[in-house]
Design a protein that fits this description.
single chain; mainly alpha; 3 helices; flat
């Protein structure tokens, strides 16, 4: 394994804590300010998509180091699809 694997595990653990706190805050905010909670939840979903994009990039780096060219190219294809979905979500929001 390359040095990317511990980084992937660390990003995974930190993101779970971050998103659990983020959506807990959105749930609590729902009791006080529903309009703020809606906005916070929407941006939480966007952050989840961006986090997934980061994970795919880290996997692409890992596959390139392991000389797995097909998986490396598939990771970049997934990055393009995921990036396009984030842009479409932001355009629909406006």
């Amino acid at each position: 394994m390359t040095s990317t694997s511990p980084l992937l595990v660390r990003v995974d653990r930190l993101s779970w804590y971050f998103f659990a706190g983020w959506f807990l805050l959105a749930s609590l905010l729902l009791l006080v300010r529903p309009e703020w909670a809606h906005s916070l939840a929407f941006w939480g979903i966007i952050l989840i998509l961006i986090n997934t994009l980061l994970r795919i990039v880290l996997l692409a780096v890992h596959f390139r180091a392991a000389h797995k060219q097909v998986m490396y190219l598939l990771c970049w294809l997934l990055c393009g699809i995921l990036g396009a979905s984030v842009v479409i979500q932001l355009l629909i929001r406006r």
